Amino acid sequence: MTTLRAFTCDDLFRFNNINLDPLTETYGIPFYLQYLAHWPEYFIVAEAPGGELMGYSECRCSGGNVLMLCVFTVMGKAEGSVAREEWHGHVTALSVAPEFRRLGLAAKLMELLEEISEKKGGFFVDLFVRVSNQVAVNMYKQLGYSVYRTVLEYYSASSGEPDEDAYDMRKALSRDTEKKSVIPLPHPVRPEDIE
Amino acid sequence: ADYLDNGNNKMAIQQADKLLKKHKDLHCAKVLKAIGLQRTGKQDEAYALAQEVAALEPTDDNSLQALTILYREMHRPELVTKLYEAAVKKVPNSEEYHSHLFMAYARVGEYKKMQQAGMALYKIVPKNPYYFWSVMSLIMQSISAQDENLSKTMFLPLAERMVEKMVKEDKIEAEAEVELYYMILERLEKYKEALDVVRGKLGEKLTSELQSRENKCMAMYKKLRRWPECNALSRRLLLKNSDDWQFYITYFDSVFQLIDESWTPPAEEEHCVEGEVHCSVEQAVEFIEERITEESKSSRPLRGPYLAKLELIRRLRHRGCNDGYKLGDPEELMFQYFKKFGDKPCCFTDLKVFVDLLPPSQYTKFIQQLLEVIPLSGAAENEVALPGDIKALQQHLCVVQLSRLLGIYHAMDKKEKLTVVRELMFRYRHGLEFGKSCLKTELQFSDYYCLLAVHLLLDLWLEGEEAAVWQCLTLLEEGLAHSPSNAQFKLLLIRIYCRLGAFEPVAELYSSLDAKHIQHDTIGYLLTRYAESLGHYAAASQSCNFALRFFHSNQKDTSEYIIQAYKYGAFEKIPEFIAFRNRLNSSLHFAQVRTERMLLDLLLEANISTSLEESIKSMSLSPEEDDIPWKDLRDNRDLTVLFNWDPKDRDISEEHRKLSLEEETLWLRIRSLTLRLVSGLPTLSHTVQPKNSEKAAENGISSRIDTIRALLQQLEAAVDSGKKFLEQKIQYPVLGPPPTRMAGFLSSGSCQCQTSLFYLVSDIYELDTNGLEDSAEIQERIGNSFKSLVERLTDLFNKCKGDLIEVRDGTLKTHPNLLENLVFFVETISIALWVSSYCDGVLRPFKSNLQKKKKKKKESSVAMPPVFTHFLDYVTELQTLTSNVIDHIKRLEIFLTALKLEELSLRDTLLLQEEKKFTKTVQGKVQSSYHHSIQEIGELLKKRLDTIKKLKI
User: Fold this and answer.
1) Where do the DSSP E strands lie in B283-436?
2) CB B472 within 8 A of CB B454
3) Which label site among A131, B472, B602, B674 has the fewest CB atoms less than 10 Å from its CB?
4) Does residue B282 carry a pLDDT above 90?
5) Nearest CB partner across the interface for A73, out of B487, B518, B567
6) Distance CA B791, CA B801 (A)
7) In the listed set B323, B343, B358, which residue is the last one of a domain according to the structure?
8) With an 8 Å Cβ cutoff, is B442 touching chain A?
9) Owning domain of residue B106
10) In CATH, what class is A3-50+66-193?
11) Does residue B9 share a domain with residue B153?
12) Residues B111 and B232 both lie in one domain
């Protein structure tokens, strides 16, 4: 039982119960504003009846390369990436406060993001997750995602510890009828090689 | 340019110089050189060079872009607008330059010029976005207009007409344009028209956001009080998703509105455009029951329908209808809910909303009823029955949380409470079994047991049980060892250590929370409230710096994304971003760290490493300037970041928040006035020569003393308000907002000392302007002030005396107030010395004049005026007093080092063997922290003592 609504700047003042979790990164203001400016409809929060924030997820659609970041804007151009079947939804962050876990909330938010990406005509949805975050990896697997490739040392560690690898996980959408987008790559890639 | 990118600014300057030798007027090279100069700290040269180029009104892309970068780095975005204004004049058909001009205006918020620039762009290149940029600029003019009438009668109608024109010409292309149209109509309160747009053909474009059309329709129905439509639409949305709480709320709101209006559906046609309407309690009851039946068929259990039923009961009770509708007994329904969802961590939060429905006489029975259905095993006589799996543990935890919420633990006596603590800790340790495979980043399933046990111990502590607080820390440290990522453990440890006066462990705990960016504003208060007041000056400096860095970057960061929002047509986000920027700029915490940071810098440096005058100059402080937005201060603190399960009457209330903000504001006012008064000291001295003529200088100084006197009056008034506030003796909940330092400031006598010191400044000024002759009365006044100041400072020192940590009846007791008073002493003596140094500056010339006279006249009859002796005595007394305090601090240090805590913990009977290890750690941390405080305070005081020696005339 949740209220799903768009994320607003004021939520930044209230998300401590979610963000003090060690696996949830608190980003600088530009991070949030950038997504709110480009894809406000993709930044969703779930609110409990008492008004506590339960979790939020952020997803964006982007084409194959950096230039395509502006695809969903008034002035952007989307054709190129559609032709290359790289047009997809990307989950940037998905986090649920500890008390509201085990409710299928993450699954519900993922469904929503998939629905939006379907509507926008994407070929697949993808996300990055820490290799060590087994809970999340298993959850995504249950939701139909599979590991497309490993990105070496994608997450920079704080003090002295080695950088951590990420899985790039994907799920094909209905537009990708042959499910070409999720065929796993045989070799891991470096962060600088991903588009 | 490559050199600039690599950060090699010197090479960049050299290369640019080389180029300039060959091509004397290569604009771009000049600008690149200017960037190099700017980055190597030569701002003035850089600015001059840039203006040289700008004056030529360049139109080449490279120069323009480089200048834009330079101006941005100089924090002079307004210069960019000038640049492009000139450029579009010269190249009037450039889409690019016009669009740069628009964005440059956007950066500085020149809405009217944006509107014109947008239209100019549209005339050159008729693209829709440009047109709508112009429309949006009108909305921004309306938002920023002081005159609401003007905004409603001019800006918004104009914006509306502009959009209507496009609609008529069938030129609307994008969703963003429809959103903008809706936004205008909504702001004009033309809800009916807005509704027509959303429901009409244009509304078909609203597809990005989820249920965008439905949400907008609903908002308009509510504004128009069209309850039938509200009802029908929310009903329909609930049929689609019976778990979305917001629609239950609208559904119930509308049903009861319709009942109150005695609305009846039309006999023949459809109820309303949105379909069927429910307008009676019977229908609502039936609808909710249906949702529950439907839910039982769904694969994923939904909490919404069950909670909706409880919500309906609550609303019916509120209207005085008691159970006429066979909805069932809330107690039973909550019991059923627990059976269904008790193993979910959120069950407690869900039920918390509805516990008001239970009669207090039933609390114990209700809890008992819940306990009975939890599968616990191993319940032999006198033994704690334990859960066999995580689900049972979760259910049990839910009951424990509810027990606390219902006040069952609060009603217990000490012995019973301790028994519960034991049981909870037993359960906590048992529960760790289920989490053996948990990663470091995961929480343990049984963590809440530990937290709840600590909350009980905190209750005991507040009731006077000294030992309990040590046990709190012990259990939390134990918990943290098993669950190193638990933020709640850390936060609670932070609060308790601070209460005990131990800041050292806090710094580490806080940094392990990895709080960053916006969290500096929301939870930074946990650090900044205590670091300085407990004498951890270095840590205080650091935490202020982190926070300030965040706030300062806000301005630049938000402007960038306001621009992006224009580019991407996220128009509704533009006012939101601006409001967000304002909220951060007027943050209470921002104003506090700004003020405290400067006070701290002065305290640590002024007249030690640099002169007071230089310090103040480098902070660009001036007594006349007040940059705190008093009327708009925003309290962005997250005061509920720590969990608690307290009953409503003990919980943090709106009233507490209001009072805390009031207290913080009063305290901030005192601090800010103190800072401004101190910053006024050097302006009074003769050594500061204004550039203007002597006469103006004369006026200048006399108006400066007026400023100081006015500030002093304001300070007195602020102190009075502070006193009045404190008379209310407000007690915030222990985990609620921390009280400010104001109470200590007043009770220690530090406040009186500081105000007297500023009065003294005024007297000395009078002596200065009056001269030594015929000033017996002033001199006597000054002499008396000196005497009473010494007495007051001695009193303040007396309030610092006593042992910081004391062993009583086998438990430790800390006296953080002694530490806080010491810190106040150091601050006050520092102000006393700054004032003395002003006094010294005034007396010294008098003395040398007198000595000259003496020599000239060769007479011994020129008597030394009494003020010199008074001052000399005063300075000597200050020196003695400071030495005494330093000696006292040395004794404290020796005592702290000698204090043997190990023996102590062994004597404590409350503790289990395995806990002792943690108790030892905890006590060691507190001891070491006090040691650290004393050292920092002592060192600073020694430095201050050295400065006294310079004051002897």
Assistant:
1) 376-377, 386-387
2) yes
3) A131
4) yes
5) B567
6) 16
7) B358
8) yes
9) 1-213
10) alpha beta
11) yes
12) no
Q: Which residues of B are less than 8 Å from A98 in CB distance?
A: 345, 443
Which 8-state DSSP code applies to residue B728? T
Joined tokens for residue B144: 């920023």
Average pLDDT over residues B928-939: 96
Report how far residue B179's alpha carbon sits from residue B183's, in angstroms, rounded to the nearest whole number.
6
Distance CA B513, CA A158 (A): 13
- For B443, the closest of A38, A74, A98 (CB atoms) is A98
Residue B622 CB neighbour total at 10 angstroms: 15
pTM of the model: 0.91
Statement to judge: residues B233 and B345 lie in one domain: yes
Residues 6+ apart with CB under 8 A from B69: B35
Angle at B875 between CA B874 and CA B877, to 5 degrees: 65
Residue partners of A65: CB distance under 8 A and separation at least 6: A81, A86, A195
d(CA B762, CA B766): 6
Distance from CA of B563 to the nearest CA of A (A): 9
Does B695 score more than 80 pLDDT?
no
B211 in contact with chain A, both atoms CB, cutoff 8 A: no
Q: Which chain B residues in 877-906 lie under 8 Å from chain A, judged by CB atoms?
A: none
Window 392-431 of B: residues touching A by CB (8 A cutoff) are: none
User: Is B952 in the A-facing interface, judged by CB distances under 8 Å?
Assistant: no
Most confident of B210-214, B685-689, B720-724: B720-724
Write out chain B residues lying below 8 Å of A5, CB-based: 246
Q: Which helix (H) or strand (E) holds B904?
A: helix B902-907
The pLDDT-based confidence of A65 (bands split at 50, 70, 90) is very low
Return the structure tokens found at B405: 């919420």
Nearest CB to B569; choose among A74, A100, A115 = A74
Residue B688 has pLDDT above 60, yes or no: no
Q: Residues B277, B350: one domain? A: yes
Residues B205 and B268 in one domain: no
pLDDT one-digit tens code per residue, B820-877: 999 999 999 999 999 999 999 999 888 888 888 777 766 555 677 899 999 999 999 9
Q: What is the pLDDT of residues A137-184, one digit of tens each?
A: 999 999 999 999 999 988 877 666 788 899 999 999 999 999 988 999
Query: What are residue A5's DSSP bridge partners?
Result: A45
Of A36, A75, A104, the CB nearest to B567: A75
